[in-house]
Amino acid sequence: MQTSTLAIVSAMHEELRALLPQLQDARRVSRAGREFHSGQMYGHPVVLVLSGVGKVSAATTVALLASEFKPYALLFTGVAGGLGAGVCVGDVVLARELLQHDMDASPLFPRYEVPFTGRSRFPADTALSDTVAAATTQCLDHPPSELSAAHLAEFGITQPRLHEGMVISGDRFIATSDDSAALQYALPDALAVEMEGAAVAQVCADIGLPFALLRVISDRADDSAHIDFPRFMNEVAGAYTHAIVAATLARL
């Protein structure tokens, strides 16, 4: 039986650290090397956990989370490399569908198709994603004080925007112009690339768990990244995560 608990899965420690101080009546449970933090956040029952890096780690985390806590839905947060035209550092991408760009069982199955599922693209939950989109728009239009225009300008961010569409995942960090261009050519509708989301989507599809996934763009997945990544994570991505999660919980 599902509970009234919302699962919030963070890809990076900085995002989890931004959320943990808001957790009331906190309880910690250790399973398979993972720390699950449950309690109340803004009056809503939640469980927080790090996903781990890569598709297998993220899939294991979500399977454990679903079995132990039986949440009614899952929200995944993290950073990603931008691929789509106009997807810039500091923008937020909300996944409407996800695909594993390194899945290739051809010629037995079409490229990208997950064998025996009949599909390559896994959709996010529409209702939850709509709620997160509204919360994100609110935060971008009225950013918290720590995301002032002057502060964002230090990272070259001027007018952060929300993009909605396909996010792709694979067990390889994309950091060269050649790799980025190859993905853009093969999957021209991909907005962003990361290392966990499509695996989370497949697990959620298998167990019938509604989910939404958002990613803050930290680079353009090529040779052009020049930001101070640890500082970006602490001062931008963590602040985005906290603000958007709070606004989402207020709407649920």
Question: Can you give the helix content as a percent range?
Answer: 25-40%
Strand percentage: 25-35%
CATH superfamily: Nucleoside phosphorylase domain
Number of strands: 10
What structural category do the secondary elements indicate?
Answer: alpha/beta
State the CATH class.
Alpha Beta
Strand order of the largest sheet: 5-9-8-6-10
Question: Compute the gyration radius: what is it?
Answer: 17 Å
The CATH architecture would be: 3-Layer(aba) Sandwich
What string, H for helix and E for strand, traces the elements in order? EHEEEHEEEHHEHEHEH
Principal-axes geometry comes out as globular
The total domain count is: 1
The DSSP helix count reads 7
Instruction: Profile the largest sheet.
Output: 5 strands, mixed, barrel
Mean of pLDDT: 93
C-alpha end-to-end distance: 20 Å
